[in-house]
Amino acid sequence: MMTPARRNKLRTLLWFVLMKWTATLVIVNFYLGSMISLEEIENSVLRLMQRDRFVTFEQPESDPMAHQNRQYKADKQPPEVDEVMGRTGTMSGVVTPTKLVRDITPNLKDGTLQGRERLWEMLTTRNMTQVDAEYWSSIPTWDEILDNIKHSGDRQNALPIIHGLDTCQAFQNKTSSDPSQRRIAPAGLFNSVLLEFNCQNPNRVKKFKGNAKRGHGNEWEVPWGKHTPGSERGQYLKNQKIKYTIDEVLPVVLIRNPYGWMKSMCRHPYTAKWGSMQNKRSCPELKRGGEWNGVEAKFGSGVTHHKSLAHMYNDWYGHYYYGSHTAAEGTQRSIEAPFPRLIVRFEDIIFFVSVLDYVCISCTALTPLLH
Ligand SMILES: *[C@@H]1O[C@H](CO)[C@@H](O)[C@H](O)[C@H]1NC(C)=O
Ligand SMILES: *[C@@H]1O[C@H](CO)[C@@H](O)[C@H](O)[C@H]1NC(C)=O
Fold first, then answer.
1. Which residues cross the membrane (predicted)?
2. Which of 71, 150, 168, 339 is the most buried (most CB within 10 A)?
């Protein structure tokens, strides 16, 4: 027979083992949970960038999941991309996963490359070797895309539009005493995809002897927060511990077509609120009963009010676009930049793979990492 003391000891031990297992399970669950959401995020970004849809990569051929992944991606059309390509909702219905049957390599001989050379070139830089024939034929030509994204000028040598390159000199002047402090950081309103730059500031690389932990000049967001209005620059700091000044950060603002942006806001309003926002049919309902339908939006720095969702867009980007000066009648807007910054269009990010290189080298003495 076990003595009561021994029984107690055993009970404690069993209890301990049980608790330990439970704790381990909880931790494993958390870990798996975070893995899944990370992967999901990565997938949705990939889907959005439209870089691996309906296409065959070199190595995943041996991957038994490849076909399944492809279907998964095909199921979920990124509406932002369709919008840029000038497609309507019915178009996405035409391309269904079940029709993914014939992979081709577009070529000039059978005319499958004609007018889409530039697009195929972009895909091949991502190591794509084949594409579904039907899907490929549904893609607009490069000229049609340039028309859609309102890109005028030289068609063959079209370059991405980067607004604000004229403010580079001011940025360089302000940071000339210590160029190794120069950084680049993204900003954008809710529902604008944020960039992850692959830029390095050679001055930083040299100073820290390539120690990447010290950062090579890409910040995750501007110091006042990626979604925070630009008017908070110099007023509000999201992270108090940063070891650089706001003048040492060049914001790169990502901007979308306002119509597409409003459509996305109707689906994912984040912290913005306005009357009848839940009504899918009437959203964004800029006016109600003849009056502007006011919007309230919450940011880290506080709450802002706007006459309507369209006004919110103008107000938010206006802080990055317009300078202001005090005139006799009060504050007026001017087209002088409020501070050095670059503004890049969402469309250009999609169709000019090189846009990030341009941004990197444009005015920060940052060089593309991948060169
Ligand atoms: C494409 O393939 C080359 C050679 O195999 C490799 O070095 C490169 O990293 C690949 N690029 C991408 C974007 O996967
Ligand atoms: C930058 O500095 C140079 C040399 O001091 C000066 O000539 C130029 O006007 C400055 N530019 C700006 C935009 O501050």
1. 12-32
2. 339
In angstroms, the Cα distances linking 71 to 75, 102, 226 are 6, 14, 33
Name the DSSP class of 193.
Answer: P
Query: What gap in Å lies between CA 193 and CA 48, rounded to an integer?
Result: 9
Which residues does a 6 A CB cutoff place in the pocket of ligand 2?
169-170, 173
Query: Is the Cβ–Cβ distance between 302 and 350 less than 8 Å?
Result: no
Query: Inter-axis angle of helices 258-267 and 309-321, to 10 degrees?
Result: 120
Give the residue extent of every domain in the chain: 83-158, 163-268+310-368
Q: Examine the pLDDT at 369 and tell me if it is beyond 50.
A: no
- At 35, the amino acid letter reads M
Structural tokens at position 255: 């901007």
pTM equals: 0.69
Tell how far the Cα of 52 is from the centroid of ligand 1, in angstroms. Answer: 14
CA of 226 relative to ligand 2 center, distance in Å: 29
Q: Which residues line ligand 1 (CB under 6 A)?
A: 126-127
Ligand 1 atom at shortest distance from the alpha carbon of 125: 13
Ligand number, closest to the Cα atom of 336: 2
CA–CA distance, 119 with 82 (Å, rounded to integer): 15
| Residue 306 host element (H or E) | strand 302-306
**Residue of 166, 172, 173, 341 with the most ligand 2 atoms within 8 Å of its CB, for mutation:** 173
DSSP designation for 230: G
Both tokens assigned to 248 = 């040492």
Distance (Å) from CA 84 to ligand 1 centroid: 27
Residue nearest to atom 3 of ligand 2 (CA): 173
Structural tokens at position 307: 């006459």
pLDDT in tens, 248-287: 999 999 999 899 999 999 999 999 999 999 999 999 999 9
Q: Residues with Cβ < 8 Å from 137, sequence gap 6 or more?
A: 112
